[in-house]
Amino acid sequence: MTKNNQGDSNIELAKESLTQLLDDNRVPDTVRSALREDYQQIRSMLEKLEKGHLHIAVFGRVSVGKSSVLNALLGKQVFSVSVLHGETKTEGKAEWDEVDAGGIYLIDTPGINEIDGEERERLAHEVANRSDLLLFVVDSDLTDVELKALKTVAETQRPIILVVNKADQYSEDEILQLRTIIRKRVSGIIAPENIVFTAAAPSKQTVIYVDEDGNEHETVRQRPVDIINLKSRLWDIIEAEGKTLSALNASLFAGNLSEQLGEKLLAARKELGEKTIHLYCVGKGIAVALNPVPVADLLAAAAIDISMVIHLSRIYGLPMSKSEAGDLVKTIAAQMLALYATFWAIHFASSALKIGTAGLSTVVTGIAQGAVAWYGTLIVGRVAEEYLAKGKSWGGGGPKLIVQNILDSLDRDSVMSEAKEEIVKYLKSKPNKPKTS
Ligand SMILES: Nc1nc2c(ncn2[C@@H]2O[C@H](COP(=O)(O)OP(=O)(O)O)[C@@H](O)[C@H]2O)c(=O)[nH]1
Ligand SMILES: [Mg+2]
Asked: What is the DSSP string of 46-60?
């Protein structure tokens, strides 16, 4: 490959962002294992970058001559060719040693299907993602299916050469016409210089001639392979920007992947966070139900919320100290109180008054209060999560807006009745009846 400083620095940049993703220790192990496949993909991309490899893949309809085009480039029969549909079932890879730079690989792929649009799109992305340059092969004017597939691969921003194969089947006039039609059809997608005609495996030609005596003779002539236009176009591109190409595509790949990783990471954290919050809600609901707290002891009960916040902060990769978590819980509680003052007052004051009365009423009160505590912990958990997901920030609206939004998003009555149900279930499963003070 040509010495190219821009290319080198692009590679470094791509490598750096890939390595960063791999080494990101903020990613908890549970999440990391869920993302193992993505990590594997990053690793193989990194390896390819380090070796400076360039991948050129063919793509196109079955039987247009994809395998034949690659064989013609290689000058030997490496990939199997068949008159039957779908000869190439799996991918193949071969080094193209005609280019001095080395490390250039040709990749054969199965043909795209005429019918299944979704599968076609998936395949197009898959092939494009792993190659630095694409040879989109056709054997006539593009069908609608081919045009759609071409647009799909073009979206991946890979450079594409449109190879019109089986040129031997057309007369010179027909080729001129075909070139004009195809140019128009793919304008805006493929530059004219990237449309090349080839005859990778021309069919034999029967020639009949009449000799001086008037006798007819029939000879079969093998037409020559015509691949030089594609070769020289490829050489030009590799000469000019080979290294930049592979780095550019690696950056694109790394960029896409880190975006996807970010989304998956957040989803995985949300799921883990959800489970964690639920556990603390159950824990606190039951603790309070068994031991209804007077208003004055509410702070003691806040210890559970504080542990929950510390736990959540680890899941989100932004660990908090006990005092930091305590401050966060206080901030959230203050907003909750401000917004729902009467609600909290009624629930806690009435239960505080009733405390001390023995028997069933205490149990009933306890369950009701446990449900309120559960609801409170759920809000604290959800708000804390939002704060953590924003990288420890409240965003423009401050804590008030976030607490308000979370409160609005929760149906208080159904949360409380679910809480009561779970608490009762737990109490019933216990052989010892709750203590009455
Ligand atoms: N006439 C002609 N036939 C070709 C040419 N290239 C390939 N073929 C034939 O087209 C058929 C399919 O070729 P193949 O390379 O297996 O296509 P693929 O399915 O796209 O890989 C085979 O019979 C080839 O001999 C060409 O340039 N001219
Ligand atoms: Mg094939």
From this structure: HHHHHHT-EEEEEEE
Alpha helices in 35-155 (DSSP H): 36-51, 66-74, 117-129, 144-155
The model's pLDDT over 169-198, given as tens digits with 9 standing for 90+, comes to 999 999 999 999 999 999 999 999 999 999
d(CA 296, CA 348): 10
CA distances for 272 relative to 134, 309, 348, angstroms: 41, 13, 31
Delineate the domains of the chain, giving CATH numbers in brackets: 5-260 (3.40.50.300), 291-429 (no CATH)
pLDDT tens digits, one per residue of 77-127 = 998 886 555 555 566 888 888 766 678 889 998 877 655 667 777 777 777
CA of 56 to the centre of ligand 1 (A): 19
pTM given for the model:
0.60
* Helix segments in 156-227, DSSP class H: 172-185
The response to whether residue 10 sits with its C-beta less than 6 Å from ligand 1 reads no
Which ligand 1 atom sits closest to the C-alpha of 108? 21
Q: Which of 59, 63, 146 to mutate to test the pocket of ligand 1 (most atoms within 8 A of CB)?
A: 63
Cβ(203) – ligand 1 distance below 6 Å:
yes
- Residue 311 CA: distances (Å) to CA of 29, 329, 353, 374, 419: 15, 13, 34, 17, 21
Q: What spacing in Å lies between the alpha carbon of 83 and ligand 2's midpoint? A: 10
